[in-house]
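Purpose: get a first structural picture of the assembly so the mutagenesis plan has something to point at.
Setup: two entries, given in the order below. No constraints added.
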Amino acid sequence: MANIPAPVKDIQFIADEVLDLAAHYQKLGVHQDIDVETFMTIVDEASKFLHEHAGPLNRNADEQGCRHEGQSVQTPDGFVELYKAYCESGWAALDGDEAYGGQGLSYWLQLILGELNTYYCPGWSNYPGLTHGARELIEHFATDELKAKFLPGLTSGEWAGTMCLTEPHCGTDLGLVNTAAKPNDDGTYNVTGTKIFITSGEHDLTDNIVHLVLARLPDAPKGTKGISLFLIPKMLLNEQNEPAERNTLGAASIEHKMGLNGSATCVMNFDEAKGYLIGNANEGLKIMFTMMNGARLNTGIQGLSATQASYENALVYAKERLQMRSATGPKLPEKPADPIIVHPDVRRMLLTQKAFAEGNRALAYFAGQQIEIIKHSQDQNEVARADRLLAFLTPIIKAFLTEVAMEATNYGVQIFGGHGYIREHGQEQWHRDAKIFTLYEGTTGIQALDLTGRKMLMMQKGQIGEMADIIQNFINETPTPHNDALQSYLDMWQETTSFITQQAMKNPDEVGAASVDYLMMSGYVILAYFWAQLHNSAENNKGQLGADFYNGKKKTAAFYFAKILPRCHALKATIMTGADPLMDMAESEF
Amino acid sequence: MANIPAPVKDIQFIADEVLDLAAHYQKLGVHQDIDVETFMTIVDEASKFLHEHAGPLNRNADEQGCRHEGQSVQTPDGFVELYKAYCESGWAALDGDEAYGGQGLSYWLQLILGELNTYYCPGWSNYPGLTHGARELIEHFATDELKAKFLPGLTSGEWAGTMCLTEPHCGTDLGLVNTAAKPNDDGTYNVTGTKIFITSGEHDLTDNIVHLVLARLPDAPKGTKGISLFLIPKMLLNEQNEPAERNTLGAASIEHKMGLNGSATCVMNFDEAKGYLIGNANEGLKIMFTMMNGARLNTGIQGLSATQASYENALVYAKERLQMRSATGPKLPEKPADPIIVHPDVRRMLLTQKAFAEGNRALAYFAGQQIEIIKHSQDQNEVARADRLLAFLTPIIKAFLTEVAMEATNYGVQIFGGHGYIREHGQEQWHRDAKIFTLYEGTTGIQALDLTGRKMLMMQKGQIGEMADIIQNFINETPTPHNDALQSYLDMWQETTSFITQQAMKNPDEVGAASVDYLMMSGYVILAYFWAQLHNSAENNKGQLGADFYNGKKKTAAFYFAKILPRCHALKATIMTGADPLMDMAESEF
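Result (structure tokens, whole complex):
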């Protein structure tokens, strides 16, 4: 299996030439000590570190997986050493709060670090990823006392974190959570219940694991408004804040999965485990969902990384594998056959992967910029706008980037032919690993309901209007050969939006019926906008990345408009047929 | 993992009510001793046998896989007993030549048996499947002497068969085969070379394995016209035609794959292995390709079986799993939540699976009827027509049924949410197993080139014309509510066909550029025709399968026309942009 260096030039192109990170930070008045060169040096170092330490573990992590014995979980060979080196090199603390030992670098760099973690070894990526998420939540919502106890360990990476939401009978429907928390006299709580699908719930990488657990207080209202959030450490701390006593919780088992085998997915039992309330009672879900935008953006980026890695492997193969002659005559007459990259259908698959990976990177980083605006901007209007944009884009990024990753990684197998089905080439692993991205952190269906139900209908003008305005302004101000097409698909998107909002007034099922098709259409149109941007940036390039690089971007933009964007015609046509074809069927008629 | 009985009622509906098997056999003047009731009794018995003996092995077959030691391969637990029972019950001999111990039943029943084998246990299905293919080839092309030696064992199933085509450097491009055959003085040949991806190349189910091997004679012309076909048994026979002496060939290793782990995929070394020429020298590829229609139809049906099985599992889950409330108010107010089948998007996924499985069954059986017409009809015009239709439909069936199986089995995972990713539920296995169907027996890209290149362009009027005429006649003669839509998509298909054939004259790459999109469009339009037929048969039903059953068919037809068929709009739009967006990119610009 190949361990191909990540496309750092592509990261640079988007961050510097398309989204102008220097101007972005200058406007926000933060991170100005980090110029483009320094930013890219950090990215480059991260990529080199992971290429050396994480990439070589990827195949074995899948093959060996995690092993559960008693209450302990052993990660695949090399993960312990990788994690140690990762923390010692300071990668765990990259954007951590300096007050607790963090380096205070930008969120954007952290996003890219997550992208690279998944690119080199997806099974590994969730250990730092979940720890980062838990740390952020505690930074935002915990008391100073809890912060002082837990943030130093989580920031350095010495301790790890998890999110414990799902129970056997409830995944999507968290209102049904019945893990129970009993208050103790000392202000702590005893928590009892079973949580499933807990990523990194137990492992051998750290001395302590900090669980963020949704549970219900004795007097809590039913449903989603009666759920509170608890911090429950695996090891209780002594007065020096050192792990001292084992808490009454543990991994009952680990799941055997389709992929992502290096990532331990645990069934966690909490048996009167001692914990601390975070935030107000009964507001646990609200807090958890505040963190959701970031978590979902990261999951979308995992899809992007899988797409990119599958593409890089496939591209090498397509240039090397000799099979059949070009339809227009031999290209390498001295060889027994031409490389398969001469065949139009192989190119169609490669370009689909490329268009998704590179366009989606721009979309994901743009969303990352919105998070930084929300964090740092002093301008309240700008913050409110970024907040709306992010709320609108998040479900699209989570679902669209991961759904197209399934298509792209499937092509990654297909380009290899029968060899793609063999494990050692690693292509089938990308497809298996990628599948979880469409499921965890809210399935595609849930994202689509979030978009069409909660977001589009509740805050319509302020939401699609915002993104549509950005696209319209681009069309008006920036001439590209793709503007006419972009305009017509923008119009189609807006018509379709109006259609759904009107239908929804007559029948609430119309929203769900249109939801996934509408989300995908939104993704394709937004991606078209970014490809028009990429074209424009390549046309007016800084020259630093080479002529082939920029020409490749312009031609990929042309490919996207010709071969991918027209999918919207089908999506519009199916949406227009409404909910009846789905809802007419009686259960007994299936 | 569920072991749900196969939908025998659906098989009956297509075979009896849609495709009228009684009339079909009456017209052909064969198999008239088998009326519909007997036909369905055989199907029912096959399903019961496999439900009892094969279904329970499916999960473990994936988990345990095959094991290679020395030169021997052990199949998963239970396969030896299953195979013995399968042969003893006469299933192996179902459509075999009575002269060699076969039962002489119809090819159609054999197709359905293959469908059921894959439905209950895909990893098992290739052992009888490959044996059947090898037996058929020998029936058609071998000398009487070879038939007498090898057909009795292959017909009873006492011996197994394989097809050995692929070599490390050539899969698609069989002109590059360099396995060498040297003639011996006694009329036999010594064959030397390495073959890869050999399904059932070695296993513990039978005393002998008969390999059909492509190799090159010393004086053979280069390329595809210099390839001959050899029968090479694992065990050489003594004068009583009993396996007596080990031939010099063996499995060097087995592949570790994405799925289909119960099926042994072997690297086979032939080291001066003794073999017999089948057919004329240098005509091996022609013979092999004569068998290809059947093999590709069977692979398409494997896709259909995966789709069906994933649907059956998902349907049970969707009716049982309680999560969230219906958008139109609680459906089971006494329960904590509604079953997820109330949600429109879950229905969209279920109905997509259902529409593909049931419509594709009609298409596959229709192709099976053409094979029977070619076999049995006395009317040479009818045979020629069936031959053309089959040649046209085969690549569509192979590629379309397997590509939509990837979509359908992906939905099968998605409907289960996170639980779909866990191995024990079996849903992710269907997706992994199904992937090989888009690869072996010629990838989707190869099927698409066969359709658009060889078949559509070389024999245009006689091919698409034939299928288009069938659809047009149906529209003219059979009123259904879907006829207007069917007509407009038929027109779209014909326009697109003309467009591609015109483009192809200017630039040969236009064919490859359009090929997969065009194949998929062809599949969607042909499937629309079959769904209109299914609607019509359900409307004018025989009443034997219940009102819910027939209503379900009519509503699934409506779903197909509303939510699936419009995909053609996108396919047409992308095809119309031609080859340039694919071919413009220089290799260095990727």
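The CA atoms of residues 300 and 397 of chain A lie 5 Å apart.
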